[in-house]
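Weekly structure sync, notes
Attendees: PL (lead), two postdocs, one rotation student
Agenda item 3: pending single-chain targets
PL asked that the sequence for the first pending target be pasted directly into the notes so everyone works from the same version. It is reproduced below exactly as submitted, 129 residues in total.
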Amino acid sequence: MFLKGWLPVFLWAGLIFYLSSVPNLESGFEADFFLRKAAHIFEYAVLVILLFNAFFRSFEKKQKQPSFKTVVFYVFLISFLYAVSDEFHQTFVFGRSGNIKDVLIDSVGIILGIIVFLVSVKSKNRHLK
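Predicted structure, written out during the meeting:
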């Protein structure tokens, strides 16, 4: 059960790491700047949703489960720290640079992912009643 929940998280984090390792990553499109920033938001929104899935799968058969607020806190913390480490990693890649603005853009994706997850849980609970 552990692997089923956490493997997608590790694979997605690996993809983010790989993309951050590509020197001078550009799409070639005129709107390259906006595409790259949208990719930051998308990457981290998906990471958040995968982390929620992993946390809830990890605790689904356990009697003592963390509170929902605790899970939200840890999902945010892990995602944010990964965003910071990703930007730090980029300082070692030729043609790339770490940028605090990108961490802030990643944080928009993190918050968006949390909102999407919360809305989907609320909607699911409403349909179960």
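Discussion points:
- The helical segments are 2-21, 32-59, 68-90, 100-128.
- The chain has a mean pLDDT of 89.
Action: rotation student to compare against the earlier draft before next sync.
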